[in-house]
Every structure is written in structure tokens, then in C-alpha cells.
Amino acid sequence: MGDxxxxxxxxxxxxxxxxxxxxxxxxxxxDAEDATQATxxxxxxxxxxxxxxxxxxxxxxxxxxxxxxxxxxxxxxxRVTAMPEREPADPRQADPIDATLDAVLRLPVRxxxxxxxxxxxxxxxxxxAEMLGENPSTVRNRxxxxxxxxxxxxxxxx
Amino acid sequence: MADxxxxxxxxxxDAYESVEPSAEAQERMLANLLAxxxxxxxxxxxxxxxxxxxxxxxxSATRQREKTSLRRVSxxxxxxxxxxxxxxxxxxxxxxxxxxxPLAAMLVLVAVVVRVTGASRNxxxxxxxMAQSSEKSSEPVSEDTAVADELAAETNAMGVxxxxxxxxxPDAGGEESAAVERTVDVCPSITLEDGTRLTALRDGVxxxxxxxxRVGELLGRGSAAAFDAPDGEAGVPCEVxxxxxxxxxxxxxxxxxETFWRCTPLV
Lengths: 158, 267
Fold this sequence. Notes:
Strand order of the largest sheet of chain B: 3-4-9-8-7-6
CATH topology of the largest domain in chain A: Rna Polymerase Sigma Factor, Chain: A
Oligomer: heterodimer
Shape of chain B: rod-shaped
Number of domains of chain A: 2
Number of helices of chain A: 7
Radius of gyration of chain A: 16 Å
CATH class of the largest domain in chain A: Mainly Alpha
């Protein structure tokens, strides 16, 4: 990785990833865009050198997750509730992808980063625990609970 | 069960995969970022020193927050089409107050401890000085004085005459004792036979030695003692001489010594 921060190159490499994370937290395109920009702004404000593109990506994922949590926390303090952009889909009738996405978006905030990191990025429990500074058992429990919620929402066994 | 689980995983993955910013949104975000970056660069170049300092303060607070929440992470390789990564640091989201407040409290605590420690040292030093001076002036024989007396007795037993200094200041020790071995230090108050009073002190503390070539005729004889010596106490015999090159000062020589010390009339 180069020493000088080429923000355009970094942005083009990871904008989709960062946006996905932000969207999963914020639930709307506008808020996800704002959070995505805020994430890259943190990198502009505090440029750093990464060991690899994977390292860069992982840093941005965690950064985006933290940005979104901050925004949501701030919003909850000021009692501002964002209107959901998407109407919750009926899991039995809607497109399975839409239904799953809706279910993911409706997960409590504390589950969102672990679900994204595990189910989309493929990180293992221990790796996620290290990334988020959590106990591995905490991550395992959150994944288990999130899975149960998703199954329930999507009409599974649990 | 395993199939169901895999199916769920696949559906979640596909759901995430379906989320993507439009090309237009991507360009819009990038343009905003580049604009902000450019503005920040311009602002950084054009601002006054004072403003820059204020920004540094804000930035350092943020940096502090980021630094303290950096987390070390390591991860494995690839899992199917999902990518794992080796991450070393990630920014935290802790409030800056969580860092700044304890830090400030710690600094205040350190400052208080340093001040209290310094004050107690000064107090103990002052106490020591007070104790030393009170021991010197008080009549009752302190333990230190008793020890010094024993040492003096031992010295006498060995056939060595204790000097005036030693007998006058038993509490003095180490470097101080080397400095007060001179009679002039102990007996700076000179009284001539005609009642003229002089002092060998200058500025209250320092004493000047006078070159014998500057010493002129004898002015008179008398005795020297400490300023706080009790009345009637026998002093050290001494001689006072005029100086050949000075009219306002004189030279005193204590009995048994060869050194001349500068002295001046006591006003």
C-alpha cells in the first residue's frame, strides 16, 4: 500500500462494501450515503497506512459500523426517528432477497455488524471478536440470537 | 438442518449483495469527499496561526479518541466467495469525553500529589531548620548535642584540643563543619578595648579574607564573639588593623591565627 492516501482509489475500491454496511444499519439510501461519506471522511481526516487492501477494507467496515452506531445513538438521544425507506416485505410473498434484506434491516443494532461480518464477509467468530473488541462468546451469542430472529422473521423453524 | 442453515446463509449473503449504491450516488459521494478534502487543504494553507491552533486542539481530541479505541484484529483467509482479512487497527466510537475526562482527572491528581509532596518536603526541611536553630539556641542539651559532647570528649582524650568552632557548634556536620572551622565564622562580632564595635560579616553572611600586604598599622586589641553570645562571656582575643588602601574597613586577626579578615565598623 502506498504511503500517500489516494482517497479516490480507496473510495472506488471499497465504496460498495462501506455502503452495504451503512445501509444495513441505517435502512435508507440517503442515510447510508451520509454515513458512507462520514466513514471516508474519517480516513481523510486521519490518514493511515494499511498493510493490504484486506486490512484497508476491514478497517473501513469497522469504521463504518462505528459511524452508524454513533449516528443512531445521536438520533435516539434527540428522539428523531428515521422513516424506513422500504416497506417491510411480507416474507411469504415478496422476493426472497427483499424479504431477507428486510429481516436483516429489522435486526437490532447490536446484531448488525456481527451478521454482516459473518454472513457476508465470512469472518469467523474469533476474528469478529477481535475486530470489534468483544468477547468471542458474546459474538457467538449474538450470531445465535440474530440467526434465531432471522429464522423467525423469515418463517423458519424457530 | 445443515441445508436449511446453508440456505439461510446464502439468502443473507444475497440480500447484502443486492445492496449497492448507484453509479450516480457513488460519483456524488466521491465529488463531495474530494471537495471537502480540497477545501480542508485550502483552509489549512490559508488560515492564521491562531485558528490553526484551535483546529489542532479539536483534531487532537478526535485523534485521542481514535487512538484510544484502536483495536488490534487478526483474521484468516478466504471462505468461499467471502473474504476474510487481516486487520490490525480499527477506529473506535468511544466518546472523546470518556478519554479526556479521566485524563484530565489524572493530570489534576498528579499535580495535586506533586504539590502536596513538595509542600511536605519543604515543611519537613523547614521543620529541620527550625529544630536545628532551636537546638542551637536552647539551653537544654539535646540528644545531638550530647553525642557531639561525647565526640568532643573523645577528641580531648586523644589529646586534640577541640577548636572554638567545634565546641561552639556541635550540631554542625559534614560540609558545614568544614565551613565553620574558621573562627571568623563563629565570632564575627568584634569589640575593641576602647568600646569600638566592628563586624567581620558582610551582607550578613560572607566574610572576606584580606591580603596581608594590605594590612597597615594596629588599630587596637579586643575580643570577638558571636552576636548572640551572652553578655560577659569571654570572647576570642583579636587584633584589628587599618588597611593601607581603604579607610572604611579594617582587618581583624584572631589570636593564634595568621589570616586577616576584613571587618567594618558596626553601625
